[in-house]
Amino acid sequence: MRIDIITIFPSMFSPVLNESIIKRAQEKGKVKIYIHNLRDYSVDKHKKVDDRPFGGGSGMVLTAQPIFKVVEKIKKKITSAKVILLCPQGEKFTQESARRLSSEKHLILICGHYEGVDERVRKALVDKEVSIGDYVLTGGELPAMVLVDALVRLIPGVLGDKNSLNFESFEGNILEYPHYTRPANFKGLCVPGILLSGDHKKIETWRKKEALKRTKQRRPDLLKFKIREEK
Ligand code: ADE
Q: What is the pTM of this model?
């Protein structure tokens, strides 16, 4: 998989992309991530990438010119790339969308900013707009990192333990069961006895029951979704 990220704040990315699982995924050659500084593509003599909106109003708008230039340059190499704009108006990002996107060969992520981007970018370049939630951030950089993190860990071979993908939250629309590790008694707070019993069948049943209980309490909406899906 190859991911190209277009941003006006390229230095925001290295602390996140050069740590932990995403770093190892790149080292193992599972994903190639390229960061493009939008300002490098501006033809303006001051490297401006934004301007006031036509028709008036507050805030600035990212101009079409540098975004077209960088996307066209990337697409010259890989024509099949899917272009995603991170913005609050996009489709809500879910585990399901992460799974779908993780099977793409090449993604171009555009980090939106200011009041937005020139609408011609949406019309002529963007295949999909994605929001990470119903709140407004200062830019699309953090959302782009969220996408990369969620996608990269789904690429086969990125996570060491196959099971850690099979039983996790939201896969199958159910939250995770409670986890415990040593010591068995911490400040008088004891691990449920069943987990120490060595009876794997009983442990599995307990985990399923606890996961369901937690989902019913915290996210009943996920269970409704599951029932509807199964009909
Ligand atoms: N840019 C600003 N807020 C955003 C959000 N919630 N999701 C994606 N991009 C954004």
A: 0.91
